Amino acid sequence: MSLLRRRNRQARSAGDDALGRPMTDTPVIRFDGVGLTYPGPPPVTALRDCRMTVERGEFVAVVGPSGSGKSTFLNLAGLLDRPTTGTYELDGIDVRSLSETERTALRGRRLGFVFQAFHLLPYRTALENVALAQLYSRVSAADRRKAAAEALRRVGLGHRMHALPTTLSGGERQRVAIARALVNRPSLLLCDEPTGSLDTSTAGTVMDLLAELNSAGLTIVVITHDLHVAGRADRILAIRDGRLSADRPSGQAASAPQEPHAHAG
Amino acid sequence: MPTPDSRRGRRARGIEPSGIRRRDLAAEALAGVLQRPARSVLTMLGTVLGIGAFVAVLGLTATAGGQIDKRFDELSATQVTVADVGTGVPDDPTLSFPADADQRIGALNGVVAGGVFWPIDQARPRFAATPDADAPGAGYGDGIRLYAASPGALAAMEPTLRTGRTYDRFAESRRERVAVLGPGAARKLGITRLDGNPAVFVNGSPYTVVGIIADTRRMPELLSSVFIPAATAVQGFGEPVGPRASMIVHTRIGAARLIARQAPVALRPDGPQLFSVTPPPDPRDLREDVGRALDSLFLLLASVSLVIGAVGIANTTLVAVLERTPEIGLRRTLGARPRHIALQFLAESTALGTLGGLIGTSCGVAVVLATAVGNDWTAILEPWVVVPAPLIGSAVGLVAGLYPALRAARIEPADALRR
Ligand SMILES: Nc1ncnc2c1ncn2[C@@H]1O[C@H](COP(=O)(O)OP(=O)(O)OP(=O)(O)O)[C@@H](O)[C@H]1O
Ligand SMILES: [Mg+2]
């Protein structure tokens, strides 16, 4: 009961540190038979019977050929789409039962998104772009700027706060986008091809940043084509034709348990 | 551990919906308008023109109407004309006005001066400055007319005298042979000074010139006439037959319509029907006549401009929605609800409309002021025109933004981000 109350308070205060959350035993993502069929016509089953979990503090890469359903997976995990089958629990909350408004609130507070195209507003400075993250949390403008400045310093852009995105390099732009995703101290950072628009060495620095954030406790899921990038993760999940295959451990060998609860240990 | 179902229920209730502060919404809208200033200005043009025309038309109508009112107040509103229509018997020369008409009308409360006058044309008067009929400047019909005018009638014309005086009631009662010259008559007769006691000879009979008029406020058409007292005229030329006599009354402001009702009875309690009275026109009728024709045409044009303005804003906002679809997707990932997206675009279009309304109002006011200054008028800008004008702009922007805002709100975040 006290656990519940604390969780509710967290939801209201929009962003206690992910590490500070008491329920470290609850997986951040738990997919149980999740599938998505786009209605079409013709209907396309982009993801089928997906069972997996992402534990708190994990760094997971999702790889797969184009059209295999990676973005579909991310949209489902990011509450941008509703699964047509199965159950998805985010931070232990079964999101199937939530209203659209609640899903939106959860999305804004518990999830951070990083995209290949950065999606920075071109006429706003780096600071203003990052401050946008708390616009829908009724945080005062001054506090939003303070949090944004802190996030920008966190990604090493303290000196470029007032630059417009058009004057930033690709790597810097992606770091601004990461700072924006960090402001609300999310439970989960979802990155769709974060290095897709960057050259190899810049991609390396962005992945360094993600690895650093992960080692500080942030749970990260990265979608990528690039096996170098995937190699930075703790775990690699492969998708092919909408099917999530057994995950391969990357780097230090994990016990490689089988689905459905890939990392339930 | 609670059961999954109860847990779900409690958690769902614990999630507070995301929301945006009103100030932040306004700031976002303003940023949206200002980030493409040139486009915003072009978009506002229709609204600027519409609101500007609206303010200018209503302002100019009020200003012009004010001028009409002013002239009206000063002259027409203080003037009543009483015409002698007589008994209707043809060629009945009897003067309906009593001999003491001036005093009777002057006794009415609100009358400044009033008196009887008529032209003496039947006698075909010939004028000369000397008894010698062949003297220069004599001649008949040089545009000089002879008028019988009581002292009250002369006073009601509000003359300014170049020299001398007008004749008084005493001269009238004694039927003195005196005359007052209008400036045109004085020039044609060559009489400019009074020091030699000059006389004007009418058909050979002398009338001593006691004054020369420089100008009159009323009946300036009589400026080239020779005036003699009414009683003197009756004695010399008989009662008027052709054009019958009239009375001109100068009243105080506001009294004219009352005097118009009272005058016939005051003059002839026994026969008020002998007179026909012309009261001043009702100022309201006058203004409305002038106002209505202008107003309806230009307000129609202003409305057309406003519709064009609304279409312009709607179009630009729709283009902005399409252009900024990825931004919409991003905002949805940051916790924006569909209504926040709709509100943002609605606020942007409303800001455009309001800005257009403000600029249009300023332009309209400037046009009214410039016209007023150029014509030496007093600018009249009613608050009920100026104050709501920018609000009309806001309303135009709001209505124009409805459809694009709805479109924006319906965009699915996943679709928006796929771009
Ligand atoms: N809205 C949609 N309606 C119908 N089919 C869709 C829709 N979105 C995606 N798909 C299909 O679902 C499948 C998976 O798409 P998804 O975008 O997840 O692929 P992906 O793995 O992200 O590919 P890429 O690497 O090219 O980004 C594809 O066959 C795609 O055509
Ligand atoms: Mg994709």
Automatic annotation (TrEMBL), chain B:
<dbReference type="Pfam" id="PF02687">
    <property type="entry name" value="FtsX"/>
</dbReference>
<dbReference type="Pfam" id="PF12704">
    <property type="entry name" value="MacB_PCD"/>
</dbReference>
<dbReference type="InterPro" id="IPR050250">
    <property type="entry name" value="Macrolide_Exporter_MacB"/>
</dbReference>
<feature type="domain" description="ABC3 transporter permease C-terminal">
    <location>
        <begin position="300"/>
        <end position="413"/>
    </location>
</feature>
<feature type="transmembrane region" description="Helical">
    <location>
        <begin position="297"/>
        <end position="322"/>
    </location>
</feature>
<keyword id="KW-1133">Transmembrane helix</keyword>
<feature type="transmembrane region" description="Helical">
    <location>
        <begin position="384"/>
        <end position="403"/>
    </location>
</feature>
<keyword id="KW-0472">Membrane</keyword>
<dbReference type="GO" id="GO:0022857">
    <property type="term" value="F:transmembrane transporter activity"/>
</dbReference>
<dbReference type="InterPro" id="IPR025857">
    <property type="entry name" value="MacB_PCD"/>
</dbReference>
<feature type="domain" description="MacB-like periplasmic core">
    <location>
        <begin position="40"/>
        <end position="238"/>
    </location>
</feature>
<comment type="similarity">
    <text>Belongs to the ABC-4 integral membrane protein family.</text>
</comment>
<keyword id="KW-1003">Cell membrane</keyword>
<protein>
    <submittedName>
        <fullName>ABC transporter permease</fullName>
    </submittedName>
</protein>
<keyword id="KW-0812">Transmembrane</keyword>
<feature type="transmembrane region" description="Helical">
    <location>
        <begin position="343"/>
        <end position="372"/>
    </location>
</feature>
<dbReference type="GO" id="GO:0005886">
    <property type="term" value="C:plasma membrane"/>
</dbReference>
<feature type="transmembrane region" description="Helical">
    <location>
        <begin position="41"/>
        <end position="62"/>
    </location>
</feature>
<dbReference type="InterPro" id="IPR003838">
    <property type="entry name" value="ABC3_permease_C"/>
</dbReference>
